[in-house]
Amino acid sequence: MPDQTVLSRKLVLDLIVPRQKDPTNPGIVLRLEGFALFVVMLLLYRELGLSWWLLVLLFLLPDLSMLAYLAGTRTGAVVYNAVHSYVLPAALFVLGFVGEGSVPMGLGLIWGAHIALDRFLGFGLKYPGSFTDTDLQRLARAD
Known about the structure:
Blueprint: H1 4-16, H2 26-48, H3 52-58, H4 73-83, H5 87-98, H6 102-121, H7 135-141
Helix pairs in contact: 2-6, 5-6
C-alpha cells in the first residue's frame, strides 16, 4: 500500500503543475500566477483587519455570473468574463484606496482572490462556444 504522505504530495504537485508534454506551456505559468495572486490577496485582506466571515460569505459571489448562461452562451461568456477579469476588482480596490475605505478595498481583494483561485484551479475566461471552452483549456490542449 502506498504511503499516504507520498500520495498527498503527488496530488498537490499534480494540482499545481499539471502533467503536460511541454513544460514550457504558458498554462502552467498562468496557474502558478493565480496561486501567487491568491496568497498575496489573502495577506493584503488580513492586513485590512476585516472579518474573515465576510470573505467566506462573499467568496463565491462572482460565480453567480454563470446564471447569465441561461440567456445563451454568448451572453453568458460576456458576463462571466466581465466578472472574472481583474479589471473590476482592481478598480474597486483603487476606489477604496483613494477614498481611504477599507471595505471597498476588502471587497476588491475578495473578488480578486476568487479570480486568482479560479485561475490556479484551471478555470479560465470563457469563449462563446460553450461554458467549458476556456483560455486555459485551449492552452492545455495546445500542448
